[in-house]
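Help needed: design a sequence for this.
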């Protein structure tokens, strides 16, 4: 009988301790979940920031994809131009290494000059014939 009484007292004390623990935990949870202040507000702000960062990341990813495709096209174009330049440079080896005379030949220069020739129009030719 004394053992039963002591066991009941210990059981009541354990139950009281568990009730007190649950009450304190409930109060902490209420403070934690309030959106105006405390951790709930901080979590809400962080959640909004994560959403904004996700949108910014998607925009940056789209811009990077566009830039990469543009860069690929420009790289291919530059490679083809470089190949043509190499071909032109290789063909330049066939040209003799003589240096050209800085002063052209006077006879050749005379032939290169522009010559202006005035032609008669049909009206002038008909007036001369008459």
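Sure. Designed sequence:
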């Amino acid at each position: 009988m004394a053992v039963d009484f002591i066991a009941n007292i210990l059981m009541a004390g354990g139950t009281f301790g568990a009730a007190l623990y649950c009450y304190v935990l409930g109060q902490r949870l209420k403070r934690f979940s309030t959106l105006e202040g405390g951790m709930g507000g901080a979590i809400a702000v962080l959640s909004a920031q994560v959403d904004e960062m996700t949108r910014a990341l998607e925009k940056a990813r789209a811009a990077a994809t566009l830039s990469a495709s543009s860069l690929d096209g420009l790289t291919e174009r530059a490679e083809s131009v470089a190949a043509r330049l190499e071909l032109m440079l290789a063909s330049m080896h066939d040209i003799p290494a003589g240096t050209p005379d800085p002063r052209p030949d006077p006879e050749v220069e005379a032939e290169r000059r522009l010559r202006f020739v005035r032609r008669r129009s049909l009206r002038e030719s008909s007036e001369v014939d008459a």
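The helical segments are 2-33, 39-92, 106-112, 122-129.
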